[in-house]
Amino acid sequence: SKSLVLLKNNANTLPLSRNQKILLAGSAASDIQKQTGGWSLSWQGTGNTLDDFPGAQTVELALKDVIGANNVVTNIADMPTGGVALVVIGEDPYAEMYGDIKSSQTLEFAALKTSYKADLDKIKELKAAGFKVVTVFFSGRPLYVNDEINNSDAFVSAWLPGTEAGGITDVLFKNTDDS
After folding, report:
1. Which of 12, 95, 98, 103 has its CA 20 to 30 A from that of 68?
2. For residue 51, what pLDDT is reported?
3. Rounded distance, CA 98 to CA 131, Å?
């Protein structure tokens, strides 16, 4: 929880209420590899599954613990507009030279890979559809994410939080006594 960096919180979007439905989107929402990064159980961090980390939680699992599985919506058609969308994005796991950004490449997250641009497109789509967009970003290094920040109502840099996404939801949601 203490390692998260809040980069944007327009109109006090955060903390979120525990008594609402939330649209969950983004390539990292239930991806333990993106959440743990390289040097976890394998050198590159690829191939790891939840079974490799007993008791681990992805953001999706932690979100279901906080607001209940019935309140986590993954299909935009099942969610009324004007609600909250939690979009979890991040880099694919890497270690050493496999993660190097060449001098001819940009440091812009969405330009590094097509799949990263798809996450930016999802943020823009949800914002245009009238959702309050809360973005959580997994990364092992600082990257240029201005478009992602500008199209989000709240933006949290979670770095590589490991296996305990409950530390993320602890920050995103009001305390239980505050509803």
Report:
1. 12
2. 86
3. 36
Contact 126/85 with Cβ under 8 angstroms? yes
Would the pTM count as exceeding 0.90? Answer: yes
Query: How buried is 140 (Cβ within 10 angstroms: 0-12 exposed, 13-18 middle, 19+ buried)?
Result: middle
**Tens digits of residue pLDDT in 112-146:** 889 999 999 999 999 999 999 999 999 999 999 99
First to last CA, the chain: 19
The CA-atom distances, in angstroms, between 66 and each of 63, 87, 115 are 5, 16, 28
The C-alpha torsion from 13 through 15 and 20 to 26, rounded to 10°, is: 70
| Distance separating alpha carbons of residues 168 and 179, to the nearest angstrom | 17
Distance CA 68, CA 52 (A): 25
